[in-house]
Specification:
Blueprint lengths: L2 H14 L28 E7 L11 H17 L1 E7 L10 H10 L5 E4 L1 H10 L16 H6 L1 E2 L2 E2 L9 E6 H6 L8 H13 L6 E2 L6 H8 L1 H5 L3 H10 L4 H17 L5 H6 L7 H5 L5 E5 L16 E4 L10 E2 L3 E4 L6 H11 L2 H11 L17 H8 L4 E2 L10 H12 L4 H16 L1
Parallel strand pairs: 1-2, 1-3, 7-8, 10-12
Antiparallel strand pairs: 3-11, 4-5, 6-8, 6-9
């Protein structure tokens, strides 16, 4: 897989993973002990955790890291273990992405517990390299969406500390100014863009090169995940009876229409980093619509303190506003040296008690159906849909063709000038490879 694809996965993880920021620059270090932040106590019981724990910037307060540390400390106190952080950092892993390094470390049995992106969960789960976590007490409390997204070959191989939801961040004041209702369907969305453009807003949608696939997922899988026949449809895709390209075509056609009308600046989007490319115009009220993840509404470094009324809604689909949720999670190596302690540690970290603490600290959606945290008013429209079990998954380990990263990469081909049919041919190629 190309490095720019892997960088895309790193960008997704930066938004999604509750514990950290996954940057995607980096290189393998042959000394696995070099990067230990917390020294192992050889006389005690140690669980080795490999994850990207660095901050987004040198002066940034890493709230997510702090929240994860609270759950680790809870496990250490209850079990008498010591969790040793073995971390990915850009300085120590030049030219290797986090995903590439994680694959090597799991396959080489270098650590006990890992924080993994969905494509890596799928690959390692299919290899039998990850333990089945379904026997943990915390697994009994999982939302069905979490269980579905992290099950490979009938085994629950990963569990996250939060459920990340993507939505449209909209400037409600600008919609009100032009007497526009918040869009429900693709047709509604196009009409809103038309009105904005006719009133002098040249580019109504601020976009970047990583997250436009959210529009595609909302339209591609609205019926699959909400029509009552989810597993049968996934089975048909995995067997080749159905084609991924048939699901994806409406979303790609929609994106092409947005590009053709100038509602999205494809050239700018193709080179823009997430939030960095479109964030300034959104906050300056030059662009009424951007796409981002749940946590971006909770932090002052993103969209948490705008000078206007902001609402976060689902993406347009045939079933109305549709949240898109990719999944990542903690996993334990099938041959972990300290497997028993690692399983017990993870069970405490993902218990309802720990997840309540984590979710309250980060103000995020918990993977446990028993843990609820009051969200800020701006997130209520998106949260209402999720609580009503209306959503689509942007990643699903049960699908043979990895979704989030591949779709992101193919959308980037569209931004670069590829036709919709050429993009569909790429999905057909990926599906054919998965069937071999």
């Amino acid at each position: 897989m190309r490095k720019d694809w892997k960088k895309g996965m790193g960008r997704m993880a930066a938004a999604c993973l509750a514990v950290l920021v996954m940057t995607s620059c980096s290189a393998v270090n042959n000394d696995p002990g070099k990067n230990l932040i917390r020294q192992e106590d050889e006389a005690g019981r140690v669980v080795n955790l490999f994850s990207p724990m660095e901050k987004t910037g040198p002066d940034a307060e890493n709230v997510a890291r702090s929240a994860a540390d609270l759950t680790v400390a809870m496990a250490e106190e209850k079990l008498g273990v010591s969790v040793a952080y073995r971390t990915y950092t850009a300085e120590d892993y030049q030219d290797r992405t986090y995903d590439e390094v994680a694959l090597d470390r799991v396959r080489s049995n270098m650590d006990d517990m890992y924080l993994l992106n969905p494509d890596i969960v799928l690959a390692l789960g299919a290899e039998g390299a990850l333990m089945d976590l379904s026997g943990l007490e915390c697994a009994d409390n999982l939302r069905e969406v979490v269980r579905t997204a992290n099950t490979v070959g009938g085994k629950l191989v990963a569990i996250p500390q939060e459920v990340v939801a993507y939505g449209l961040f909209v400037n409600k004041d600008m919609f009100d100014r032009y007497q526009l209702s918040l869009p429900e369907t693709p047709e509604d969305f196009l009409e809103c863009c038309r009105v904005f453009q006719e009133n002098g807003i040249e580019t109504p949608v601020g976009a970047n090169r990583w997250w436009l696939e959210t529009f595609v997922f909302a339209q591609a899988y609205a019926d699959l995940y909400n029509g009552g026949n989810t597993q049968a449809e996934i089975d048909a895709l995995n067997s080749g009876e159905s084609k991924y390209s048939d699901y994806m075509r409406p979303g790609f056609t929609f994106l092409q229409e947005l590009i053709d009308h100038g509602y999205i600046d494809a050239e700018k989007a193709a080179v823009s980093e997430a939030i960095e490319g479109e964030g300034a115009d959104f906050l300056a009220q030059k662009t009424p619509i951007v796409m981002a993840y749940w946590g971006a509404a909770n932090t002052k470094t993103a969209y948490g303190n705008p000078d206007f009324e902001m609402q976060v809604i689902g993406f347009p689909s045939s079933r109305g506003q549709m949240p898109v949720m990719p999944m990542t999670g903690f996993a334990i190596g099938a041959e972990a040296e300290h497997a028993e302690d690692a399983m017990r540690t993870l069970d405490v970290m993902l218990s309802d008690e720990a997840l309540q603490l984590y979710s309250e600290t980060n103000r995020v959606i918990s993977p446990s159906k028993n843990v609820e945290v009051e969200c800020i008013p701006a997130l209520k429209p998106l949260n209402d849909r999720i609580q009503a079990d209306v959503y689509v998954l942007g990643s699903n380990a049960g699908m043979k063709v990895e979704q989030w990263g591949n779709t992101c990469q193919i959308v980037r081909q569209l931004l670069g000038g590829a036709t919709v049919e050429e993009c569909m041919a790429e999905f057909d190629r990926l599906q054919a490879e998965s069937l071999q």
